[in-house]
Specification:
The complex is a heterodimer of chains A (482) and B (301). Chain A is mostly helical. Chain A has helices at 6-21, 27-46, 50-69, 73-110, 128-143, 153-161, 163-166, 174-182, 189-222, 229-260, 278-284, 287-298, 308-326, 330-348, 368-389, 393-403, 418-436, 443-450, 453-470. Chain A folds into 2 domains: 6-187, no CATH class; 190-276 and 355-481, no CATH class. In chain B, a hairpin with a 5-residue loop joins strand 5 and strand 6. Chain B is globular. Classes of the chains: A mainly alpha (482), B alpha/beta (301). Chains A and B meet through helix 9 and helix 19 of A and helix 1 of B.
């Protein structure tokens, strides 16, 4: 079920009313309702893959309990590896098998040998990368004794499958989310209204900004061979906002929906396009994934400890693996590699932790130097997105070749088309409001704090009507494919 | 909770009322199809693809044939090709309480073809997932079902749409902006190129032909049925001739077999003017509609 569908517009209020009116006094009833509604939400897409979620959940639940019982370190390590093998194995089979098989065959062909490996004709289960990582983090935390394993199977099943974040995150840690399933949730007016506000902003970003940009992004990337450099640059910029609106919009809707049911998720995006260097960007973009890789890959590899070579190796590993997590294609790997290249100078000059606060904190406008840093970071991030969006590396390099040609100094195609003007206008609205709300957990929190009730309600009314009038309907989310 | 529900309900009512107001503004300019699903059931239908939608003006024919109240229920070649989808939609739109009406079924090679490896595989018929395939309500105003599930543009287009076309009350899709002869010629070349490409992907479908027969059989009890081939520019006619050289013979055989008339206008291409090589300008549509009325008048008496 898509967040931006009529089905969800009926599903959410229905579950909300059942949750608070039928099951408000028993935590078990609340959890049963959450589990059923989460499975319905996921099964709406393809019920057969529910067994995969159930399988992943049962394995990690059982391993968690075994880890508690076992005191021998060797056995504990074996259990952890079992969890890793099962989760990553499922991911490898569904997501990466064909990639490895194809590259394996090509590698042999290079050496003059020809082998054949059948590719699997299977569909990628929606959200598999998200829930396997969430489930896996539980086993690792229990193994590290950072978390008591749960004996409450219902809560654990809810933790893995909770519908707002099941298919595209945020990847919630058991430490934060699981205990919330143990206790009875009580309706909180402030939390619920804040959730509605955050959802509203998410819908604006997804339906108005991302999906209006999407039509031109597709047009430009598909027709790149015949378009000018300036048009391709425009396509890359539009894709930057498409992917930001799409993914951060999803996160806002997910976090907002969870608030309606009394849950708090961690922030997943914190105005990443106002970052002043690439390190800050990665502290603000898809935070739940960046911190996952930091805690479960970078630090176990040694993190910042050891020689410079050692740390550089770790930096490249974490960025490349992060790229590969997004998809089984060399384009994603190269995208990760590029970000590692961007990051390395910051590490070498000890500037990676330079910007820990938000840009222009306490000020209305940025200083010129700050603005330049923001623009520079946005430019390199945008150029790197070309690899993320392209179908192949050769396509991406050809795209760059055209961008950096004489045709860069020309009028971009489509620029004065009404739909393009609308897309650019709403990108402007997004940037302005994001800038005003950059010191808050989400953009509309700022509106709520700053303005009087009549202004607020008029603003919310206008925002809903803009989503209704200008929004593109029933478009899937980019991150569903990951 | 009470406060939350009261507030959200009030806000929701205001929002839904505003949305309803927008929907109430939907009309013949909103898109080329919406209005056709907002009129009541119709007794006489002109069916087929966009050539019929642009080319036959029911009000002109109604003026000539006094007993008839016809309606243009034609769409596009990739949504209203002859098949179960279009037939079901026709059944929903037809007022079966009225008899002795007329039905004109526009035909051309594309309406009897499909762009799949097996052109007789029903699951691969293009229109299956189009608005004609999913829309069960074709006679309500406003048509919420269409607006919510099938309206493909952002809703702002209901309030402001710069489209050069408008659907009239009789279902006729009229061009309302002037088009220069030069631009029309350019558009004709684009159409020729487009259909030359289409002809590489499309294959004749015997299943579509049998559904054309079934449509005729379904309509026959309610009046006189005519099969019509619209006039088109020479360039496109040549593309169609190459794609399906025996098309006219096939239609002659079909209409004789079913004891109905075949109105073939492809020999009168120079009498009409085309927007893009195959869709008629309003003046030509007017002329053709008069000509059709003249030809079927004696047949109808």
């Amino acid at each position: 079920m898509l967040f931006n569908s009529l089905e969800f517009a009926i599903f959410l209020p229905f579950i909300f009313l059942l949750y608070w009116f039928i099951a408000p006094k028993r935590v078990k009833f609340q959890n049963i309702l959450i589990l059923i509604s989460s499975y319905v939400f996921y099964g709406w897409w393809d019920w057969r893959f529910l067994f995969l979620i159930l399988f992943s959940s049962i394995v990690d639940y059982a391993i968690g309990l075994q880890l508690q019982k076992t005191t021998q370190e060797r056995q504990r390590k074996q259990l952890l590896w079992l969890s890793i093998l099962v989760n990553i194995g499922v991911l490898a089979l569904f997501k990466y098998y064909n990639f490895f098989a194809q590259n394996f065959v090509e590698a042999f062909t290079l050496f003059g040998k020809s082998i054949s490996l059948d590719s699997l004709d299977i569909i990628l289960p929606v959200g598999i990368s998200f829930y396997t990582f969430q489930s896996l983090s539980y086993s690792i935390d229990v193994y590290r004794r950072k978390l008591e394993p749960t004996k409450d199977w219902l809560s654990f099943l809810c933790y893995v499958s909770f519908f707002p974040q099941l298919v595209a995150g945020p990847i919630e840690r058991a430490k934060n989310l699981l205990p919330q399933f143990y206790e009875l949730r009580k309706f909180n007016y402030k939390q619920a209204t804040d959730g509605i506000r955050q959802m509203l902003w998410g819908f604006f970003k997804k339906m108005v900004v991302a999906d209006n940009c999407a039509r031109y992004v597709t047009l430009i990337f598909d027709g790149a061979d015949d378009l000018s450099g300036s048009t391709l640059l425009l396509g890359a910029v539009l894709f930057s906002f498409q992917i930001y609106g799409d993914f951060s919009g999803y996160s806002d809707i997910a976090i907002g929906s969870a608030k309606l049911f009394g849950f708090n998720f961690k922030q997943n995006f914190a105005v990443p396009y106002f970052s002043r260097n690439i390190a800050e960007f990665w502290r603000r973009w898809h935070i739940s994934l960046s911190t996952w890789f930091r805690d479960y890959l970078y630090i176990p590899l040694g993190g910042n400890r050891g020689s410079k070579i050692h740390v550089l190796r770790n930096i490249f590993i974490i960025f490349i693996v992060s790229g590969f997590w997004h998809g089984a294609n060399w384009t994603f790997i190269f995208w990760g590699f590029l970000h590692a290249l961007f990051f390395v100078p910051l590490f070498l000059f000890k500037a990676n932790r330079k910007y820990l606060n938000v840009a222009s904190q306490g000020r209305f406008l940025p200083k010129p130097k700050e603005l330049l840093s923001i623009l520079y970071t946005f430019t390199i991030v945008t150029l790197a997105w070309v690899f993320f969006r392209a179908e192949s590396l050769s396509e991406a390099f050809a795209y760059f070749k055209t961008i950096f040609s004489a045709s860069l100094i020309s009028k971009p195609a489509f620029i004065f088309e009404p739909k393009m003007v609308i897309s650019l206008f709403f990108i402007g609205v997004l940037l302005c409001l994001d800038w005003l709300g950059r010191e808050n957990n989400h953009t509309l929190e700022h509106i709520n704090k700053r303005f009087s009730k009549p202004i607020r309600y008029t603003f919310y009314y206008l925002l809903v009507m803009i989503i209704f009038l200008f929004g593109v309907r029933d478009q899937t989310f980019i991150y569903f494919q990951f | 909770m009470k406060r939350f529900l009261i507030k959200i309900t009030i806000f929701g009512v205001v929002i839904l009322s505003s949305m309803l107001l927008v929907f109430l503004n939907a009309d013949g300019k909103s898109d080329p199809f919406y209005k056709k699903f907002t009129t009541s059931k119709q007794s006489s239908l002109f069916l087929g693809s966009s050539r019929v939608a642009h080319g036959i003006i029911p009000s002109v024919i109604n003026n000539e044939l006094k007993e008839i109240k016809s309606y243009n229920y034609a769409f596009t070649y990739n949504t209203s090709g002859y098949g179960p989808t279009y037939l079901n939609s026709i059944k929903r739109k037809l007022d079966t309480t009225v008899k002795d009406q007329i039905f004109i079924l526009g035909v051309n090679p594309w309406a009897l073809s499909n762009n799949s490896e097996d052109p007789n595989d029903l699951d691969l018929f293009l229109e299956k997932n189009s608005f004609l395939g999913t829309l069960t309500t074709v006679n309500s105003n406003p048509n919420f079902n269409y607006l919510i599930h099938n309206y493909s543009e952002p809703y702002i287009k209901i309030l402001y749409n710069r489209t050069p076309f408008i659907v009239d009350d009789d279902g006729y899709l009229k061009l309302i902006l002037p088009l220069t002869a030069k631009r029309a010629l350019e558009k004709e070349q684009e159409s020729i190129a487009n259909f030359t490409e289409v002809s590489n992907d499309y294959l004749f479908s015997t299943l579509r032909l049998s559904y054309l027969k079934e449509t005729i059989l379904y309509l026959k009890p309610y009046g006189d049925v005519y099969v019509l081939r619209m006039p088109i520019g020479k360039g496109l006619f040549n593309v169609e001739k190459e794609f399906m050289p025996n098309f006219d013979e096939m239609m002659h055989d079909l209409t004789s077999e079913m004891n109905i008339s075949y109105l073939n206008f492809t020999n009168e291409v120079n009498d009409y003017h085309y927007i893009d090589g195959h869709h008629l300008f309003p003046e030509s549509a007017n002329k053709l509609s008069l000509e059709i009325a003249t030809r079927i008048k004696p047949l109808n008496q």
